[in-house]
Write a structure and sequence with these properties.
With 636 residues, the protein is α+β, with helices and mostly antiparallel strands. The chain has 2 domains: 23-263, Beta-galactosidase, Chain A, domain 5; 273-535, Aldolase class I (TIM Barrel). 18% of the residues lie in helices and 35% in strands. It is built from 12 helices and 35 strands. Strands 5, 6, 7, 8, 10, 11, 13, 14, 17 and 18 form a 10-stranded antiparallel sheet that branches. A hairpin with a 2-residue loop joins strand 3 and strand 4 (60-69). It comes from Aureibaculum flavum. Residues 1-21 form the signal peptide.
């Protein structure tokens, strides 16, 4: 017994001193940082001209020696380094996971510039690296600029977000030049290398970094390296930069569920977030001109909105989004209401039915003043605002999120907004944004390939508002909507693919854009969307993914699983139920394309069947070209 006690004491002392030596090291300059699993190695080095870093993962070079600096072309001296190891778990207000592990090793590097110390923080995660600068006092006559190079393998190709159009790529690194105005590379930038992990380059936590704009990528032909440079708009004598992130995953789909961007973001700043409820919303904009079977024509009027609200109340849809035409003019402190409807009556009706309203606001029509805007929306009985045309103005958008939170309003951004990666942790009222080609945007209809690209690229930066879920595909294609695509028969999809897309694209506000009657006509298929608990997921995983071809996503809420798959070329995907619990039998409902389904000529044909599955079963999800497949699984 004495011997065992001595061994335990010795072991505990060994762990303590080992941990102590790892957690704080100021006597020697450490230039190598390992991820917790030891597979990622971040090397740093310096000479008089520059500080450099490199990344190696699982024995492969991801990024060769590359420069990183806050003050370019100035002498860099490392004063000291300190290491810490962090392993915590936190609970998001809503998200793809109900608990998130924040597990990393960090190296704090104290540097010297013009006799002024400043710090570079480097974090090594098992699936990513992060870099951030902080300085308490910016030296006089010094202009900080967060500059970083990425010396990627020469065979690298890029895929990039492209605003309200299909993401661009593959763009070969070898084709880039100093002037890439015709090949602009935006965040998040996805990098594909043969037989190496997929890489995503982006930033996070702009919420904590006033004075910085969103990064774009350029190419330094002389150094033959991709670069990201972001000048600082001097507003104070101190600064903190955003985190620059390098994510890597063996499977391309795992970049979408990589939690490093959220882990580095500032914690929730809303003291009581209980009012923040993610959910589904109906939307009037794409329905204008739709004629129901009873002859009713949808437009901007109370009766149309009552129909939306009735359907939402009956079918577990939490919100109804009223778009642009509820008002006609905006002046400082005044919004001129449209004479076509009585908004107060609509608001009262929605409240009576238990449906929350979200109201659009468009800065093109005038500036009301944000200090007054959000309290005004709250006084109207609104639960959220869809804010249009703020663009990539970081400080303006950050302030809109903060002010909307003060008035207990959700906020969803229209057009081509700021990619606020990590913002859903800091301000979880920021539920969605159209950082994508929202379906039928600019009256264009995107392709199945474009959807898959956005699901694998744009979605890396956070929740999207893509407006999937069209059930009256034939009606849209034949031009029976005022806001439908300009080109007839340009919407290539199937109704099961539309249902699957609402699950695949993660969001805190799933906006379904069709008429209540379109969903009522296919209520058995609509069940998949109706049962889906938006934003309240305990677990999410991408089962299959290939650029331009297919994606299959599974999400769990408590004991239920929802799986959505789409395939641009047509084919089948093996869904392995190895994630189910051992010894239990699950009921499953399949929502499928049929043998007669055709994404161009017969897009609304579908079938529903039921069965049982258990752990280890493999089901083939069969899809036509441009089609989809859905599953709802729950314990018997």
């Amino acid at each position: 017994m004495k011997s065992n006690s001595s061994n335990i004491i010795c072991f505990l002392l060994l762990v303590f001193f080992t941990s102590l030596s790892f957690c704080s090291n100021t006597d020697t300059i450490v230039k190598k940082l390992y991820s917790p699993d030891g597979n990622l190695i971040i090397n740093i080095d310096n000479n008089e001209k520059e500080l450099t870093y490199s990344l190696n993962a699982n024995g492969q070079t991801l990024i060769s020696k590359s420069s990183i600096s806050l003050f370019q072309n100035s002498k860099v001296e490392i004063l000291k380094t300190e290491q810490v190891k962090i392993n915590t778990t936190w609970t998001p207000v809503w998200g793809q996971f109900s608990e998130i592990q924040n597990y990393y090793n960090e190296l704090k590097v104290t540097l010297l510039h013009n006799k002024t110390p400043y710090k570079l923080f480097i974090r090594a995660y098992n699936n990513g690296a992060a870099f951030r600068y902080e300085i308490d006092q910016i030296p006089k006559n010094s202009t900080p600029s967060f500059y970083i190079e990425y010396d990627l393998p020469k065979e690298s190709v890029f895929y990039t977000h492209a605003g309200e159009t299909k993401p661009k790529g593959p763009i070969a690194l070898s084709t880039l030049s100093d002037s890439i105005s015709n090949q602009k590379l935006f965040m998040p930038l996805m990098v594909e290398n043969k037989e190496k992990p997929f890489i995503a380059l982006l930033e996070s936590d702009l919420a904590s970094a006033p004075g910085f704009k969103v990064i774009d990528f350029n190419f330094d032909k002389e150094r033959n390296k991709l670069i990201a440079k972001n000048d600082y708009n001097l507003k104070s004598n101190s600064l903190i930069t955003p985190w620059r992130l390098i994510l890597f995953e063996k499977n391309i789909g795992d970049l979408v569920t990589n939690m490093v961007p959220l882990n580095v973001a500032a914690p929730n700043k809303i003291s009581d977030p209980s009012w923040i409820k993610p959910g589904k919303t109906l939307w009037d904009w794409r329905v204008h001109g739709y004629v129901a079977e009873d002859g009713f024509t949808y437009g901007i009027d109370n009766e149309s909105y009552y129909r939306f609200i009735d359907f939402a109340a009956k079918n577990n849809i939490e919100y109804f989004l009223i778009d642009d035409s509820w008002y006609t003019d905006v002046k400082k402190g005044h919004i001129e209401m449209s004479e076509k409807l009585d908004l107060q009556k609509v608001s009262d009706y929605a409240k009576k039915k238990g449906v929350k309203l979200i109201l659009y606001y468009d800065r093109h029509k005038g500036v009301y003043g944000d200090e007054e805007l959000f309290p005004f929306y709250s006084s109207l009985g609104m639960s959220g605002v869809k804010y249009g045309f703020m663009g990539k103005n970081v400080s303006f958008s950050r302030e809109a999120i903060r002010l909307s939170a003060n008035s207990k309003l959700l906020i969803d951004f229209h057009d081509n907004p700021v990619p606020f990666t990590g913002m859903t942790r800091t301000y979880p009222n920021a539920v969605a944004r159209e950082y994508c080609h929202a379906q039928q945007d600019s009256r264009r209809a995107f392709t199945p390939e474009a959807f898959i690209r956005m699901a694998l690229i744009n979605a890396i930066q956070g929740p999207l508002d893509m407006n999937n879920g069209i059930f009256d595909i034939s009606g849209v294609n034949s031009g029976k909507r005022e806001k439908g695509p300009k080109k007839l028969n340009s919407l290539i999809t199937t109704v099961t693919a539309e249902a699957a897309r609402t699950l695949i694209i993660f969001s805190g506000l799933v906006c379904i854009p069709d008429a209540p009657e379109a969903y009522t006509a296919k209520l058995d298929l609509f069940e998949f969307i109706q049962k889906m608990p938006v934003g309240k997921w305990d677990e999410s995983k991408v089962l299959h993914a290939k650029m331009d071809e297919y994606i299959s996503t599974a999400r769990r809420h408590k004991k239920e699983w929802f799986i959505g798959s789409v395939h641009s070329k047509g084919g089948s995907l093996d869904i392995n139920f190895d994630f189910l619990k051992e010894g239990k039998t699950y009921a499953i409902t399949y929502y499928e394309d049929t043998d007669e389904t055709d994404s161009k000529t017969n897009p609304e044909a579908y079938q529903i069947r039921k069965g049982t599955v258990k752990k280890g079963d493999i089901v083939k999800a069969k899809m036509v070209k441009g089609g989809g497949h859905c599953m709802w699984i729950r314990p018997e």
